[in-house]
Amino acid sequence: AHEELPITITVSDVLECKTVAGIAFKRGEAFAGPAVAPIQSARPHGMLSFGQERLLFIEGLANGTSANHLSMEFVLSQYTSLNALENAINFVIERHHILHTIYHEDMTQSVLPEWVFTIETVDDVEAFANLPFELSHDLPLRACI
């Protein structure tokens, strides 16, 4: 174990601090480990899964529907940084290719190398939540305040 991490952590450190961040703080050390790397896709362009085919079939039948939408509402503190929240959501989108995948008429998909995600300010949250996604160019994720 000492070969992989050249530091000594006592049992009392673990019991007292309970988290790796707490132990690092107690020891006066900042975490200098590598950032979480994005998962690399084997194919940025390829065939759809059965679930993706079903989604596109339903979207095609309903001509744009909110049937597959999962809407959630959160209460944010007045101290919430919208910039930090946007950055966190962009990190999740980067980490999960399905969240930056678009679909083509020939029943294939492409993972977007770049995208723009912003938290929108809207007056009618319900209308925003029911707005159909354009899966040929929209990210399948939205947020508003």
How would you characterize the overall build of this protein?
This is Condensation domain-containing protein. It comes from Mucochytrium quahogii. This protein is mainly alpha-helical and 145 residues long. It has two domains: 1-33, no CATH class; 45-130, no CATH class. Helices cover 33% and strands 7% of the residues. The chain is built from five helices and three strands; from the N terminus they run H-H-E-H-H-E-E-H. It has helices spanning 11-17, 20-27, 50-62, 82-95, 125-130; strands spanning 45-47, 101-103, 108-111. Strands 1-3-2 form a three-stranded antiparallel sheet, with no helix packed on it. Strand 2 (101-103) and strand 3 (108-111) form a beta hairpin.
Write the SSE topology.
Blueprint: H1 11-17, H2 20-27, E1 45-47, H3 50-62, H4 82-95, E2 101-103, E3 108-111, H5 125-130
Antiparallel strand pairs: 1-3, 2-3
Short description:
By secondary structure, this protein is mainly alpha-helical. Helix content is 33%, strand content 7%.
Structure summary, number of beta strands: 3
Radius of gyration: 21 Å
Tally of separate domains: 2
Average pLDDT across residues? 83
Structural class: mainly alpha
Rounded to the nearest angstrom, the distance between the terminal CA atoms is: 47 Å
Number of helical segments with 4 or more residues:
5
Determine the strand fraction and express it as a percent band: 5-15%
Strand order of the largest sheet: 1-3-2
Which regions contain 5 or more consecutive residues with pLDDT less than 50? none
Helix fraction bin: 25-40%
Task: Let me know the largest β-sheet.
Answer: 3 strands, antiparallel
Protein name: Condensation domain-containing protein
InterPro entries: CAT-like_dom_sf
